Amino acid sequence: MTESTSKSSGYNKAVEQELAALEEDLLWTEKAHFAAAESLARVNFWVGIVATIAASVAAATVLADATPVIAGIAALIAAIASGLLTFLKPTEAENNHLDAGRKLGALRVRVRQALRLDLFPDLDTDPQELRGLVLGFAAEKAEIDKDAPATSGRAFSAARKKIEAGHFQHADEANAG
């Protein structure tokens, strides 16, 4: 092996390590966004249910000539729940997290393909081309992160449980371990 080939394979190994780290980071961030979206969907559902039931109770008690206090309390609960939905906009936040998760997932697939195909040992790839590949992926992730909503520790913990349970492993990865 010549010195040039040795340096090239060393550089390819460094690129491989960098892309593997990026792929792992993408997985965790992607799944945290999906966990946040899932949580927001539950919030939207349950607050919406409360608003609907409270509004129905308020309307029914008015029509049934029930105690005005019951109608008032039910109307107040309905107003608060509806106000929370309007102010917090959980559906919009859920969609923002889903969008970020999907973009990160698509980028993760491209990084994985680069690891498996572009760094194939038999290929003689220009080191500058590999450097450009890494820089491009990193810049794209930074752009996605910039536009994405923040994820909570709770979303990260939910993602961690699923990742560590092997929910997102490909069959070839599970068999290799």
From TrEMBL:
<feature type="transmembrane region" description="Helical">
    <location>
        <begin position="69"/>
        <end position="88"/>
    </location>
</feature>
<protein>
    <recommendedName>
        <fullName>SMODS and SLOG-associating 2TM effector domain-containing protein</fullName>
    </recommendedName>
</protein>
<feature type="transmembrane region" description="Helical">
    <location>
        <begin position="43"/>
        <end position="63"/>
    </location>
</feature>
<keyword id="KW-1133">Transmembrane helix</keyword>
<keyword id="KW-0812">Transmembrane</keyword>
<keyword id="KW-0472">Membrane</keyword>
